[in-house]
Amino acid sequence: MLTQTLFQSVVVCVGALGTAAAALAYFRTVRLERPAIGAFNSKDLVILAGFIILLPILYLALPGAVLTGFLVLTFGSAMAIGLRPIMSARYRRVLIPVLIGAEIVVTYTLLGAPRGLQLYWVLTSAIVLVAAMGVSNLYVQGGLRLRQVAWFAVFLAVYDAFFSTVVPLTPQLAAAFEGRPLNASIGWAAGRYSANIGLGDLLVYGLFVTAAYKAFDRRGATWAFVTIFLFGALAPSVAPMVVSQFDQGANGIVIPAQLFFGPAAFAVTARLYRRYPERTTSQWLGEQTARLERATGDRPVSALAGARPGEPVAVAG
Amino acid sequence: MFQTGIRQMRMAMSMVWGRPISPRNVERLIEDALETLTTFGAPGDDVQQLLDGPFSDPKVREEFQTRALRRTAARLAGVSPYYRRLFDSCGLDPDSLTVGRMAGVPVTLKRDLVASQADFLAAGSQPYVSTRTTGTTGRPAEVWLSRYEMELWPAMAALSGLLRNEISPDDCMQVNISSRATAAVQQNLTVCRLVGARSRMLGVVPAEESLDSLLAGGDSAPTLLTTYPSYLAELVRAARRRGVGPGDFRLRRIDCGGEVLSAALSRATYETFGPRLVNDTFGMTEILPVSGRVCDHGHLHHDLNMGFVEVVDFQTGTPVGPGEMGTVVITPYYPYRECMPVFRYDTRDIVRQLPDAPLTCELAGVPATSRILGKADHMLRIGDEVVTLRDLVEVVEDLPGQPWPARFGATVDDGRVRLGLPGDVLADASASELRRRLADRGLNVDVSTVLDDRAGVMIRPLRADLLETTFAGRN
Question: Where is B326: in which H helix or E strand?
């Protein structure tokens, strides 16, 4: 139990903090193209919440092949969002199908082979990392505010608690994904130990850290990382030691991380808003542009873009 | 974001399929645009294509235009008694109409609209408001508009204005256009309402009163002004008389149209009011909601999303080539125009086609012509030589005495252009100086008569003279 917990803690911490760090680095250096009209707001989160409730039911009802097709489409789109600004279409059109295709092939052919499971997790984790990084940036660069992310985390906490303990939808879903292609999580396996953390959790961590950085700069990001580490990674990993409800045996698959993270994220957000003025999206865009101008020798840069839409920008500081 | 995407999709589908566009849907998009501007401080990256359409590619443009023309012609053949007769007479089959075949359809003139007004009303439409032309070019024409049109046009204009930063909720618009131009007045006021900006509808009142309004209110003083060039001239003169300058106004933009705006007056407006932009717009009651705007390079770019624009020969009605002059003929597309639509309406506004070379201005994706040079019916011809209203206005308004707005009459008399001006117009400049300046512009015009008063010559009508008195003005 202790070894599994330690193993789980390491894997989940690496996955959670790694994804959050990647999302933040992306946020600071890459400007996603956005449509002429439209900003992400609370209504979008309500729609997303609707999908979160309905999709697992759909996933469980779908035949295996259809579910895989659905996931290929989902991950292909999510990866395209993240890679589009940093990789030309020529490479993207090769990399995304190759990565997803390789993952599917490995799942069906190599899972029983030596090192097969590790290869599976490398490929799956890479796909999920890029997807979580891209989609969280899409939302936060698209205007989503920290306050909205915090409320969303609270909703997920309630959702997680309900569907893990009252209606066991999440465990069923985890079981359905196990050993199937495109398992929506970052994980690792070694010997008889296996641990992973789901895409939904990673997405929320990516949203939280980037929205906190946007609103409160380094101070916000620091608080976000601490919250993710303590309540998004560590607490859920050690929970099975004290709460048998979450103990899924050696798999350690189903831990309602949001149950811990949601309230903590909400409290941290409330504290940040109470103590510091929020930096708006337009202010952040202005500051990023100014930093870019300094970095490029005071050459005037459009206040809108900072660089051509979708082009990576090098921002100092 | 998701809802905005769905609304944009709905609007795009209406445009592609030629179905009525829901004004409510456009109004919601305005709210989305406001939220976008509040969040980011500017619209997103593909705003230019959203606003100007995919018209830089000639092939795409022609496909779009062919579809829109067929749709519009098919509807007119079904609902417009006037065009059913006209299309029958010229053997037009709407389903086979192409851009190239448009020249085969006779143009519609203002006199047709005046003479057969009832036949232009589309069957099944509900006339809601009538709007009249100001009558500067003859008997006023009355155009009926439906409620759908009166709701859709301002909504489209507000959305476009917001995204182009032509208006924002912080703005206050002063409207100095004739109160009889009900469509334009209603459009301006509704645009302000939809955007959340303030509006001051004054009409063509004495210039001193308008100036008071422009100066009043401190931080809430007008930031936008909509007027005619001739009235703008009166305002400039009033401001100079009072000794006020750019620091006394908050104006950031002045839109003027309906008349020729000269370079001299435009310059003086910048110097006096200090706006960031004096926008020379093109619009006309009969062909609403199609409009045009002048870019930094002085080209007139028409909005090709809402209508088909041709430049045709004055006599033959066939398209003119690069560098040639012709009149602007406009066909507003369905579903933008519903109640009293026109097809190939000859505005009689003269423009010159630009040379056949790629444009380099900020609106290069939208085809353009020269600015409006004047009305075809007021064009002066001496043999092969043509003198337009703009030619004369540019020279007269550039005289040292700054005689704005330029009041003069011009006719061709015995093979020479006779330019008649009130005596005070010339002020410090002599008639010979005026002749020299005209010659400098390459105009072989002889100022044969300079009048001491306005008697004996038909002074061109100016909209600034459609004065609407107020009790305050009478004191």
Answer: strand B325-332
DSSP type of residue B365: T
Q: Cα–chain-centroid distance for residue B335?
A: 21
Please, are residues B322 and B255 in contact by the beta-carbon 8 Å criterion? no
Which residues in A lie closer than 8 A to residue B40 (C-beta atoms)?
A: 34, 39, 143, 281-282, 285
Give the mean pLDDT of B96-114.
Answer: 90
B29/A304 Cβ within 8 A: no
**Chain B residue with the nearest C-alpha to that of A284:** B40
How distant is the alpha carbon of residue B304 from its chain centre? 14
* A166 within some domain: yes
Q: Which of residues 83-102 of A touch B (CB under 8 A)?
A: none
Polymer length in residues for chain B: 475
Reading the block at residue B378, the tokens are 């007021």
Position A110 in a domain: yes
Contact (Cβ atoms closer than 8 angstroms) between residue B178 and residue B468: yes
Q: What is the identity of the amino acid at A271?
A: R
Q: How far apart are CA B128 and CA B23, in angstroms?
A: 16
Residues 6+ apart with CB under 8 A from B326: B311, B312, B313, B314, B319, B320, B350, B351, B352, B353
pLDDT tens digit sequence for B310-340? 999 988 888 899 989 999 999 999 999 999 9
pLDDT tens column, B247-275: 999 999 999 988 889 999 999 999 999 88
Q: Is A50 on the interface with B (CB under 8 A)?
A: no
Q: Which of residues 113-152 of A touch B (CB under 8 A)?
A: 142-143
**H helix runs in B410-475, sequence order:** 423-426, 431-440, 471-474
Arithmetic mean of pLDDT, B173-180: 91
DSSP class of residue A279?
Answer: P
Q: Say how far apart CA B333 and CA B174 lie, in whole Å.
A: 30
Residue A290 maps to a domain = no
- Which amino acid type is present at position A29? T
How many residues are present in chain A?
A: 317
Listed in sequence order, the residues at least 6 apart from A297 whose beta carbon sits closer than 8 Å to its beta carbon are none
Angle ∠(B410,B310,B333) on CA atoms, nearest 5: 120
- Those of residues 15-44 in B touching chain A at CB distance below 8 A are 29, 32-33, 35-36, 38-44
What's the token pair of residue B444?
Answer: 């072989």
3-class SS shares of chain A: helix, strand, coil, % to 5: 70, 5, 25
**What's the domain range around A110?**
2-279
Which of B400, B372, B387 has the alpha carbon at shortest distance from B261?
A: B372
B-chain CB neighbours of A143 within 8 Å are 1, 36, 39-40
- Whether residue A41 and residue B41 make contact (CB cut-off 8 A), yes or no, is no
Report CA A20 to chain centroid distance, whole Å: 7
Spatial contact of B411 and B392, defined as CB atoms under 8 Å apart: no
Q: Report yes or no: B365 and B372 within 8 Å, Cβ to Cβ.
A: no
User: Hey, are the CB atoms on A36 and B29 less than 8 Å from each other?
Assistant: no
Question: Which amino acid is located at A153 in the chain?
Answer: A
Torsion of Cα atoms, B116 then B121 then B122 then B127, to 10°: 180
Give me the interface pTM, i.e. the ipTM.
0.73
Q: Rounded CA gap, B266 and B261, in Å?
A: 7
- Domains with residue ranges and CATH for chain B: 1-372 (3.40.50.12780), 379-465 (3.30.300)
Count the neighbouring beta carbons within 10 Å of the beta carbon of residue A92.
15
Tell me how close the Cα of A88 comes to any Cα of chain B, in angstroms.
18
Q: Give A160-201 pLDDT, tens digit per residue.
A: 888 877 877 777 777 777 777 888 788 888 877 878 888 888
Residue B47 pLDDT class (50, 70, 90 cuts)? confident
Domain count, chain A: 1
**Distance separating alpha carbons of residues A229 and B28, to the nearest angstrom:** 41
A317 within some domain: no
Can you give the pTM of this predicted structure?
A: 0.79
